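User: Design a sequence. Structure:
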């Protein structure tokens, strides 16, 4: 099996882009949820605004009011279903965003650890170099 070697910065950049895309999808899902909730409020308001007939009414007027109430109730029911679906989609998108954020944070930590190790190694090499130079000067001075 072939092993692949990628630079950590490249993978971190990709994870950051994935996180950004997941965030954007979550924001779109939230907008769709708000739109569905607003439509449900409008449908509920229309149903609440439907008043019963007053006074003497014909059977056709009564039938029309009944059918109108049925249509409005069906509209409210469909809106509630859309709100439930939008809420479910928003929750899934939020979870995807959280996962992408976690993956991105893990890479950021790994990158910070790698930088700290590189710095520690560089400082250690510098100390060794200074010791070698000091020893060389000392030994050169003692043989004169």
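Assistant: Done.
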């Amino acid at each position: 099996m072939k092993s692949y070697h990628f630079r950590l910065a490249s993978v971190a950049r990709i994870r950051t882009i994935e996180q950004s895309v997941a965030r954007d999808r979550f924001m779109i899902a939230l907008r769709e949820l708000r739109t569905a909730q607003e439509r449900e409020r409008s449908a509920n308001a229309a149903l609440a605004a439907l008043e019963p007939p007053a006074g003497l009414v014909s059977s056709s007027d009564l039938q029309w009011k009944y059918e109108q109430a049925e249509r409005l109730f069906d509209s409210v029911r469909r809106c509630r279903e859309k709100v439930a679906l939008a809420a479910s989609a928003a929750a899934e998108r939020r979870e995807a965003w959280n996962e992408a954020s976690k993956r991105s944070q893990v890479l950021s930590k790994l990158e910070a650890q790698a930088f700290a190790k590189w710095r520690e190694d560089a400082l250690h090499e510098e100390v060794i170099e200074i010791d070698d130079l000091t020893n060389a000067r000392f030994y050169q001075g003692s043989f004169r």
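Residues 59-142 form the longest helix (84 residues). Helices lie at 8-49, 59-142.
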